[in-house]
Each structure stands twice: as C-alpha cells, then as structure tokens.
Amino acid sequence: xxxxxxxxxxxxxxxxxxxxxxxxxxxxxxxxxxxxxxxxxxxxxxxxxxxxxxxxxxxxxxxxxxxxxxxxxxxxxxxxxxxxxxxxxxxxxxxxxxxxxxxxxxxxxxxxxxxxxxxxxxxxxxxxxxxxxxxxxxxxxxxxxxxxxxxxxxxxxxxxxxxxxxxxxxxxxxxxxxxxxxxxxxxxxxxxxxxxxxxxxxxxxxxxxxxxxxxxxxxxxxxxxxxxxxxxxxxxxxxxxxxxxxxxxxxxxxxxxxxxxxxxxxxxxxxxxxxxxxxxxxxxxxxxxxxxxxxxxxxxxxxxxxxxxxxxxxxxxxxxxxxxxxxxxxxxxxxxxxxxxxxxxxxxxxxxxxxxxxxxxxxxxxxxxxxxxxxxxxxxxxxxxxxxxxxxxxxxxxxxxxxxxxxxxxxxxxxxxxxxxxxxxxxxxxxxxxxxxxxxxxxxxxxxxxxxxxxxxxxxxxxxxxxxxxxxxxxxxxxxxxxxxxxxxxxxxxxxxxxxxxxxxxxxxxxxxxxxxxxxxxxxxxxxxxxxxxxxxxxxxxxxxxxxxxxxxxxxxxxxxxxxxxxxxxxxxxxxxxxxxxxxxxxxxxxxxxxxxxxxxxxxxxxxxxxxxxxxxxxxxxxxxxxxxxxxxxxxxxxxxxxxxxxxxxxxxxxxxxxxxxxxxxxxxxxxxxxxxxxxxxxxxxxxxxxxxxxxxxxxxxxxxxxxxxxxxxxxxxxxxxxxxxxxxxxxxxxxxxxxxxxxxxxxxxxxxxxxxxxxxxxxxxxxxxxxxxxxxxxxxxxxxxxxxxxxxxxxxxxxxxxxxxxxxxxxxxxxxxxxxxxxxxxxxxxxxxxxxxxxxxxxxxxxxxxxxxxxxxxxxxxxxxxxxxxxxxxxxxxxxxxxxxxxxxxxxxxxxxxxxxxxxxxxxxxxxxxxxxxxxxxxxxxxxxxxxxxxxxxx
Length: 940
Prior knowledge:
Elements: E1 40-43, E2 49-54, E3 60-67, H1 81-88, H2 100-107, E4 111-118, E5 121-129, H3 133-146, H4 153-172, H5 177-187, H6 202-206, H7 210-220, E6 226-232, H8 236-247, E7 270-276, E8 282-289, H9 297-308, H10 314-322, E9 326-334, E10 340-348, H11 354-371, H12 375-392, H13 402-413, H14 419-427, H15 431-441, E11 447-454, E12 501-504, E13 510-515, E14 521-528, H16 542-550, H17 559-568, E15 572-577, E16 582-589, H18 593-605, H19 611-628, H20 632-645, H21 659-664, H22 667-677, E17 683-689, H23 693-704, E18 726-731, E19 737-745, H24 754-766, H25 771-779, E20 783-790, E21 798-806, H26 810-826, H27 831-843, H28 852-864, H29 871-880, H30 884-894, E22 901-906, H31 908-917, E23 923-926, E24 932-935
Parallel strand pairs: 2-6, 7-11, 13-17, 18-22, 18-23
Antiparallel strand pairs: 1-2, 3-5, 3-6, 4-5, 8-10, 8-11, 9-10, 12-13, 14-16, 14-17, 15-16, 19-21, 19-22, 20-21, 23-24
Helix pairs in contact: 1-4, 2-27, 3-8, 9-12, 9-15, 10-11, 11-15, 16-22, 18-23, 24-27, 24-30, 25-26, 26-31, 27-29
C-alpha cells in the first residue's frame, strides 16, 4: 500500500557502537570501524521473533513487522494474494473499526505508516511518539489475531477494486510499465512466482474467493511466520511485557512449507517486443544472477553502479554523453531469493533505433567481461554503496531504516546483526571478482532482451463482477475482552524541536547549521532566491535550465570529471530549481565534508556553461518535454498549471518550460540568469549533520567566503485573474484510467491564514484517512489513492485535488470530489476530525528533522519564507489554537468550487459524455500543449 502520506516523520537517532572517523579529507579513505547496531533477539512460545534495539536520545519508537510471505509463496492462478492481503490488513479487525487503523495512528502523530509487498516478503511499519508504543502493538496484534473476525466479502470486493486500480496506475497507464513487466515474463517461466507482477493479474484478482483468502491468512499471517522489530526510546522490560501481552496469546499457525519453486537457467537468448503508447522506444536487457546475499550478489550490485548508475557510469558515458543515442540509462541488481534480476534499461533518443543502442551496450559489456572494471571504478562504486547504506541508517523505521534493516537481515539470513558482514562483503569485491561474475552470469545466451515500441497497449483487463455474498466472518482466536478498547497513551516526554545556529558571512551569505551527531553524516544545501518565478515571460524553464548546467562542468572540472570526483568520495550531488528558489545540494560522510563542500562551491560558483554541454542538455530537455506527453499524471499537472495561471504567469509552466523557450535559450541567457540571481546576499548555505558550529563556519568561510556579487529576491508574482469553472479534456485514447486535477490558484506561504488552511486541507485530502481518499478509494473503489493539497509558494501557489481513477467512473469521481469540497465549506469539522488533523500536524513535526537531508530542507524553508529560527519550536502551540470555526472560515474563503478548473487526461470517447452531464461548466478539449482542439457545442 504505497499511498503517499504527509512528510511528517518522527525524529529518531540510532544506537550505534563507536564509529571511528578519520580526519576530514577529500579522498575516500575508509573509516576503520563499521557501525554496529545493538539489539536483542528472542522468540515467543508461539514462534514470533522479537528484535529490540534501544535509543533513548529522543522520545520516538518504530515498530516494523515482517511476514515471511510474498509471491514466492504463491501458486499459479493465485497471483497477487500476498499484495492483496497487505491491503486487507488495513481494513479493520475485531477490536479495530473499519478505516480506523490509519486514523488512530495519524491522530497519534505517527508517520511512515505503510505496508509493502515484494516478491519475497510483506512488511508493515509505523514510527510514532514512544508514549504510543502500546497503541502500535495493539493494532498490529489485533490484525494478526483477529482479522478473520471481520474479513467479509464487501471489504474484499472493495480492496480488489483498489488493487486493480493500483495495477492500472502503476503498470498499465504509465509509459513502459507493460514493457518492464514483459522483461520479467521473459526472464522467468510462466508459473514461476516472479513471472507475474507483485500486484497480480486482473483475472487472478477478480477470481479471488473469500474462502481462499481466509486460508491464505491462516497459513501465512501467524506469529510463527513473522518477526517484529522495535527500535527507539523504550524500556526493555516494559517492551517485552507489552509484546507478551499483545502477541503471546495468539496461537501459532500451521508450519510453513519451504519455498519449492526453482528458477531454471536461461540457456539461449530470449527476445520479446511489447507495444505501448510511447513516443520513444526503450530497451531492457536482463539476466538471472546470484540470489540475495549469496556469492556474486555484492559483485553484481557494484557492477550495476559501474555500468549504469550515475553520470560516471560506463553506459551513461557511452550512450547518453558521448554517442547521445539514449535519453537515459539505468542498471539494477534486483536481489531476490530465487535468483536476482540484473537488468539494463535505456530509452532511445528520437530517431534512434534500439538495435543501435543494443549494439553499444554489447560492446561495453564485452569490454567489461574481457578486462573487468578498474580498481578506481570498484572503489567509487563501493564508496557510494556503503555511504548510502550508512546514510539510510539515519531513519529509525520506514524504508531502509534501522528497524527495517534489522528485519531484512533476520528475514533473509536469520541474523539481525549482519550489518558489519554486509559492508564486509562489499569490501571484499575486487576488479577480478567483478569480471569473473560478469563472465559467468552476463552472457548473451543467458539473457532476455525486450523492446518497447510505439503501438497499442495490450491490457489483459476484464470486467468487474459482483461476487455472491460469502460466508459470514468467523475468527478462530478466543476473544480477550480487554482488547476492546485502544490503550491510552503513556506519559508524553517533553520534546523541544531543534533550533539551528545562524550566522552571516561578511559577503552577506547567511549560514545555518543544525547539529546531528548520531552518525558521521552531513548534508549541505546552497539555496538561492532565484527560481522560476523570475523567468522572463518568453523564457519559461530558464531557471531550471540554468540549474541543470551547474553540474554539467565547471571552470575547473569537465562534466564527467565532476561526476567521478563526487563518486570518489561516495557523495551525492544534485542541482534543481523550484518556483521559489534554485539549489545545489550534496550529502556525504563526515570524513569527506571538506571535499563535499569544495565540490558544492565549485558547481555553484564556477559553472562553465560550455556550449557543447548546453547543446547536449538542450536535447535532453527537449526529449524530456516529449516524454511528458506519455505520462498522464505529468501531462495533467502541466495542463492544470497552464489552465489556472495562463501563459503570461511564471506558475503557468513546469520547470521544463516549453519547446520554443528551450530551443531559443542561449548561453548568454543562462549565464545572465546565473550572474543576476546567484549572489551571496541572495543566498543561504544550510548544513545539517555531524558538524560543530566552528567546523561549519570554517567550511563556509573557506569555500564561500570569497563569493562576490549583489542580488536581492524579486517580489513574488501576483495572483492570476480568477476564471470560471470549466472542464479540460486531454485525449489519451485507450487509457485505462483518467488522471484528474481539480483546483484553482491558492494562497502564498506568508498568508496569515496558513495554519487554519493547512489544518482544513489535512482533513480534506492530506492524510490516508482524509475525506477525499476514504470516499474515492475505500467507499467507492474508484482509485488507488486521492489527495488534496495547497502548494505554498512565495506567491499564490495552487490548490489541487488529484487522483487517477478508473476510466468508466471518471464523472462519478469528479462528482464525489465536488461533494466533499461542498461539505468542507458548509459545516464545521467534527471534534474528532479536528483533533486528528491537528495532532497529525503537530505531533509529527519532529519528522522534519529525521535525517540530515530533510533537516536541511526544513531549515532551508526558514530562509526562503523568512521565518524565525525558533519557528518549529513555537508551531505546535499555534496549531493547538486552531478551532473548527477557523477551518470553516478558511474553507469558505479559500476553496471556491465555482471557479475551479477540472483537468481530465484520459480516453475522451469514454469520459466526455458523462462529464458533460455533470453540468459543471463548459467542456473544452485541448492537445498536449494546452491548445484548443475543438470547441464543444456548449462553448459556442
């Protein structure tokens, strides 16, 4: 269930052993000691494995539960069961009401609430204030022990609809989704657990019987087939008592049979062509390689980096940079139990044949199989990989955090403490071992090649049917009356949100530092108040084009040398622009802080604006604009911006701008924008992580103290003229879903009503348990997810409601959205709704400081929106003061359904007649560039 939630995670730190840190250096010298995660593992009598890891620095706790089941355990004709069950586990149980799981956790201030299914496992997790640990254990145990008591046909039918919408949204509607699925069809034989998508097929999902689902639950969702990791601020004795209280009485299930599926080797090349509604062809080349954590897996992981991850990779240099025959290229080692999938993906430039790309790929592979990589390539790939593993340990739970990693090691290896050995297996990789495994596993006869080309989408969809009512829900677990009431929160610890250190260099550059000494990790973010809001009216996209050029070579480093230097120290560098600002960011380990800041200063202060690099980047951007036409959601966003703000407003364009402006942009335009906007008095250097104020001042002075130039932020753009309600259709014939965007211009971040608007919008569409999502997803099964959000900017950013809905329910979905908008404007939020919205907002604020990277982002916003240093510390009290009357006033004032634009990107023949019947306003049909195609009778 990948429903996107508000980024309000809870702060956490790690319990790590002493981490020996070398002196600040520009080289990639390794630390002499790897981080060690302290934990205790034990097993309950019913077989549940429990992993505890304490951290008392902050009052936060993560609960992470893994069930040892995935498609690897499924059988033919029953694909998608594990993933479907992931959804069913959020539908309520005997003591937890329908749709209450998310609501209770969100109201408690939880974050990272989710569940995910991969081929080999299913997991569920939440991070929340430590005084709410008992709530998490109550919820997780109740659905483990009592789900069958409420598992009835109506819930199953709704979630089948939701999952089928997820398949449409993730596989069938976006470009190349069917092509990538085709690669797995080619790699693994039909009937193999990895052959089908994790989501399953429409036919298998529609054929699901309630009895089969119950049997699947009894077999796999039992304590003897699960492990729970608890990480954070808790008392060990108390945690053990709570685990025993909530899980100890749940009986073990039947023994789980070992996975019996085998993966036959590929002995001769397999080829396939898949047609899709795409502008550009794409090639996938894949092999079955070493299983996860087995010999060769680490080599293949590093080889994927050497071959196709980042600008310094071999295939990027060859296909994208030198030959310029590919728009993009990536390489992946997808590590799995039954044989990993190693695959290369490359998208052709316009006019380039896939055969030409395949030939170039083969030539690079031949070189690698013959000579192997260089020692420098292996070292760089290892540095990037190990730095990434360590940086991910900044998170307590969620994806890749400490709890998740403990559970991952336990699931695959039975050893939660495998981290040191994991890093050691990368340390052991040599150029010769990479060459050896490349020779053994990446042969031409052992691969699958899939061409994705333009043509009709061939979707194996089937009609929805109404199943007969199944038997009444019956559980097998004896009731325990004390479970009927959710546990009360424990005593809350006093939490003071961090306040950054701030100083200004003599040249006017503002410097912020947020200290975080739990891990030797740093993040630095140079932010410049020169974003796309300052683009000339005839040069939309100029700010982003300029930002793109920053890391395409400097006066001291050509583009590829720059990328190699970043990889050499295991750092990650990025440049970008938004409406409000442009930014250059870098993340690295503390030992490479000096080298990281030197690289950051080089790209920001000394860009070369090479004519050759400008032309290459121009082609990349033009192709990206072409690709936007393939993606319904990107096309909906682009059309919505143009229709709401118009072509004369800077907010009327995406950061890519337009084809005309991209073609017309000159080197003088780019350098001029940089010289005018990039200046110390207009900028801030934000650092977060393992730095002291003295170290931060020394680094800022050394690398940015000599920066000269004068600039000041331009006035924010004004609001566009208000329009009348209308419906815009962009035709995508054959699309299984319609991408919807509904809204109008909203408010600026500086609006004094920001807080009541945000509390109101949170209830409307900012949480999983919000009104719009529960209506469209849970009540009607129209979509995989829906949202509503005010996008705050220095000027009046947009209010947007969005979703991707099944094509045949486009008009009903629009009708329901307007119903929810009307309800929000006509009656106050209930006391329960107000409490959940405010508590979710306030209690999860620490998540803004979860990692060095997100902490730097939070502090950056203080500078961009001119907020006081203690802003986050005072915010909870201000949120607490928002009343239901305030939110109703905000809804009436800032939601105006009568002037909202409705953008629907979908199959016009299917959706237009019903949309017209809604009577919401004139219906216009526009092309992918926003130009009118035909005037409907009602518009004449």
